[in-house]
């Protein structure tokens, strides 16, 4: 990995900034970052790409989660168990990440993105305001199960995790997009941390690239979090639909090439 060109590093840093901004607004920054790493390092093992993506991502999610929590002040009684169980799920997912073949990445991600995008478009009022569907223990149990399930996915694969957290909190639990985004950032920070707990001792992280992208991701996360607070739920919904649609096209193209190749 030492022979990477300066142009490649610059492009990866730009991807890191864009991923941080997208992640802070609506989640899914990994859908920018991970493909860029796959292109830059075609010979790398999937676990190296996942680990480096996590290192870069945690820089942005740490900044955006603090910014959104301070400004949105979400209900931490839901956010904390969501994050803790997401951490546990991500630990388990990271342990099995090395068993997942690279060829399985895109088809799985594409299927989930199509389902998420279709549901969001079919519900135009989704996420405008918080209207919780459950209360009490059932609410916390569903939040915890959501955190563990998405955390498991994040540890094993990763791309789109922030968007999936936002979607689950909005579509399943009934939060508005802005509050969902704040909770999603805390949970996503927890899943990134859990993955690194597994990946770092394995020596899977490409530290130079990961830290360079992480610095850019941090700046993007800060800018994105402030943008999300200033623009509100309507803006977040639009960005969510645009991001999901763009990645459906991008990943769909890769899947078609994979099938015909």
TrEMBL record:
Domain of life: Bacteria
Keywords: Cell membrane, Membrane, Transmembrane, Transmembrane helix, Transport
Subcellular location field: Cell membrane
Entry-linked InterPro entries: TM_pro_TauE-like (IPR002781), TSUP (IPR052017)
Membrane topology: Multi-pass membrane protein
Transmembrane portions of the chain: 6-32, 79-98, 104-126, 162-181, 193-215, 235-253
Assigned GO CC terms: plasma membrane
Cleaved signal peptide residues: none
Pfam families linked to this entry: TauE
Family, as annotated: Belongs to the 4-toluene sulfonate uptake permease (TSUP) (TC 2.A.102) family.
Protein's name according to its UniProt entry: Probable membrane transporter protein
Organism whose genome encodes this protein: Barrientosiimonas humi
Lineage start: Bacteria, Bacillati, Actinomycetota, Actinomycetes, Micrococcales
